[in-house]
Amino acid sequence: MSFPWAQHYAPKHPVMQWLDQRLPVPRLVYNAVGAGYPVPRNLNYFWNFGVLAGAALGIQIITGIVLAMHYAANGAIAFDSVEQIMRDVNSGWLLRYAHANGASFFFIVVYIHIFRGLFYGSYKAPREMVWLLGVVIFLLMMATAFMGYVLPWGQMSFWGAQVITGFFSAIPVVGDPIRIWLLGGFAPDNAALNRFFSLHYLLPFVIAGVIILHIWALHIPGSNNPTGVDVKGPQDTVPFHPYYTAKDGFGLGVFLTLFALVLFFAPNALGHPDNYIPANPLSTPAHIVPEWYFLPFYAILKAFTFNFLWIPAKLWGVMAMFGSILLLFFLPWIDRSPVRSANYRPKYKWFFWMLVVDVLVLGYLGQAEPTVLVVLGSQVCAAYYFAHFLIILPIISRIERPLPLPNSITESVLHGEKAEAAPFGTQTA
Amino acid sequence: MLRLFGPLIAPIVGLGFIAALILAIITASYESEPATAAHEFHLHPKPLHLASDGMLGKFDRQQLQRGFQVYKEVCSACHSARLVAFRDLSEIGFTVPEVKAIAKNWATEVPSVNPETGEPATRKALPSDYIPSPYANETAARAANNNALPPDLSLITKAREGGAPYVHSLLTGYRDPNTYRNEKGEALPADAKPSANLHFNPYYANLNFAMPPPLVADGQVSYADGTKASVDQMAQDVSAFLVWTAEPKLENRHRTGVAVVIFLLIATTLAYFSYQNIWAGRKH
């Protein structure tokens, strides 16, 4: 579905007409990301990040498929097969560094995408389903990234797998059997490595499927915009193509340039040196830390240092860590304010930036050595994280007096300049 | 799962997290741990500048060959470099006959099978062989080194925090534990002094390092190119060599990267003007 003024696909070439009557894939693309999808005219650069996340997934799938042609998922030779890719496979170093840093860049753009949604209220009605599917994608990404990090079978791979699968042993009574069943052994070994490889290859395609649902759900109400005000008429929108394809093209260029700078000139900056040491079950690294994109959640896990209400600290930590993400599923119903964009919410805006700082500090604390101050800091920040969603948001959505909203997107763009009020996409240049 | 339990369970569980954390904050004891000797005496690596540094960095092949010589004559007595094949040495400027000779004359032979009897045997290395370990297995390596295991050096500059500068500092950082003073002028406490078979080195994380000083005297290696083989020079050269063993495609990477970034900058500029052109005159 779309707005009534959306342009209609009308193929001129006989081959395209023939195809359209039999398998209307070009029509689908035209309506999804072509001229047939009207988009608010006032989107800022933060709306580039959805397309960038899609591009990052594409990079991961393409490099990953080629890497899988050379990688050997066997505990005895996995580490060496990765080194062989780095040394003897043609451009193997490029593939592997692109894949490893591609994961980081995927998370960077997805985190910006998520915080954009939080700032502009993109999770609110009628886009709840877009948000829920987005959280599902995020969870799948985390699972995929974790299993991918295990594959090189270095020290951090092995001990990361040990720690993460150890979460399941926090479940009362059945925890240990579940953990052993999931690993296929008492500790990460060949069985675990093989199933992680299998799932690491599968999940990206599941992610791609959920992304299709995510975009489908988005196209029902159409994109949100920086004012958060609904589209009122044709003058508020432009066709996705060529307006946003051009803007996304530029955004993609900037993204790829930054990606290339890291990939070619600091490819190990985001990794951990210990993962260049082959996995050794008999030697525990001094500090086991996950990849940077998990650090805020790791800090929440480690913040629970004592037993409370007969529940052991470890179980609290694991529940809180998963809870911190599952909480996001409830967000559309926690924030009751009818105003979407934080630009018109003077109090929420302030707390939004507090949350950003809170998560960044949690990320820093996640990798710091657990001194007294670090533990205290992560306890304060973890408590604030939950308080943001469960105490602050419900209260401010009640007491806040939003600023007056513009009557329409066009009005906010033109500030009363009537000259351009004609339907935008239909103007001739 | 939580969604199935209705709208109330989730906030209650979440508030439970907050309650648990607040209680933890209130009841915790805030005595800071005493600083350990490792904290007081551990040093960060000294800066080391190599030709391979930076975006346009290339290997100094002369230096890599000197570094290889140090590895061959000193380090390889205990350390393997199992990911480096002799054939790879042609990349740092050795000719094919030189590579063949290096492989053939390597101090350790490579495992083989006696073609007559089928019994395990050894043979002289070929260019296609990887640099062998001086020890038959880990147990043999530990037995020869007071139960310490000399790590494989192929990836060492990527597998240690600090990289090549760390290796260089470690090799030149041995000090006398009895006379050493840190920045504050403090002497090493008695319980931090190395026990038998350990060696004081402030660049090593716990200060007491199992490896005895490997580079002890100027001129320990005679360089063919006339470079004076001071301890610091040898340490720099072998660190540069170990950058190459860990990242042999570094020059490819830098070269490709420069081309890719230039291409992307041009493409992005064009994309920007295309974007401006399409949106020209439209307020948004």
From TrEMBL, chain A:
A ubiquinone binds at residue 219. It is a multi-pass membrane protein. Binds 2 heme groups non-covalently. It is found in: Membrane. Heme b b562 binds at residues 99, 200. The main subunits of complex b-c1 are: cytochrome b, cytochrome c1 and the Rieske protein. Component of the ubiquinol-cytochrome c reductase complex (complex III or cytochrome b-c1 complex), which is a respiratory chain that generates an electrochemical potential coupled to ATP synthesis. This is Cytochrome b. It comes from Alterirhizorhabdus solaris.
TrEMBL record, chain B:
InterPro entries: Cyt_c-like_dom (IPR009056), Cyt_c-like_dom_sf (IPR036909), Cyt_c1 (IPR002326). Coiled coil: none annotated. Binds 1 heme c group covalently per subunit. Gene3D superfamilies: Cytochrome c-like domain, Cytochrome c1, transmembrane anchor, C-terminal. GO terms for cellular component: membrane. The keyword Transmembrane helix applies. One of its GO terms (molecular function) is heme binding. The chain crosses the membrane at residues 6-26, 257-275. Its main location: membrane. Keywords: Heme, Iron, Membrane, Metal-binding, Transmembrane, Transmembrane helix. The keyword Heme applies. Residues 62-171 form the Cytochrome c domain. It is found in: Membrane. It comes from the Bacteria. Heme c binds at residues 75, 78-79, 211. Its cofactor is heme c. This is Cytochrome c1. It comes from Alterirhizorhabdus solaris.
